[in-house]
Write a structure and sequence with these properties.
With 136 residues, this protein is an all-alpha fold. The protein folds into two domains: 2-76, no CATH class; 88-126, no CATH class. It is 48% helix and 0% strand. The protein has helices at 2-12, 26-42, 58-75, 96-104, 117-126. Helix 2 crosses helix 3 and helix 4 (96-104) packs across helix 5 (117-126). The chain starts with a helix and ends in a 10-residue tail after the last helix. The model has no long low-confidence stretch (mean pLDDT 83).
């Protein structure tokens, strides 16, 4: 049956979110959520590096945590923080990460300035008036 075959293909596709949730990742998701929650509550910077074998639920776990943090902030009457997730396997060079961060702030590379993405970020965050106001 073509309809059943299509349903099976969709269910087994790697980009499909399982309807039952992510199995055996509750503890990891809770730890990441608590880390993010503490950063928002204390208005302090924080970053995470999540690593593991392919297909173990890293991207899905982080997506679920981002939703949980947004929901929690709304419930607490706090401004929902912006988020930035970078899948580093898609980067050709480690320094490309700075360009990805700049994209989040919709900063265009200035042809006249000839500053590297890292230098642009340093300049952006070294002056309070030019730094983003919303927590990221």
């Amino acid at each position: 049956d073509p309809a059943q075959m299509q349903a099976v293909k969709e269910a087994l596709h790697v980009a499909t979110t399982p309807s039952c949730g992510l199995v055996c990742r509750d503890d990891e998701q809770r730890r990441v959520f608590e880390f993010c929650k503490a950063c928002v509550q204390q208005e302090r910077a924080g970053s995470l590096y999540v690593c593991g074998c392919p297909g173990t639920g890293k991207t899905l776990s982080i997506s679920k945590v981002k939703q949980s943090v947004s929901r929690w902030a709304d419930e607490m009457g706090m401004e929902t923080p912006d988020d930035l997730s970078i899948n580093c396997t898609n980067l050709g060079n480690t320094s490309d990460i700075f360009g990805k961060i700049l994209e989040k702030f919709q900063v265009r590379k200035k042809a006249s300035g000839k500053l590297s993405p890292l230098q642009q970020l340093q300049r952006m965050f070294s002056h309070k008036e030019s730094a983003p106001r919303r927590m990221l």
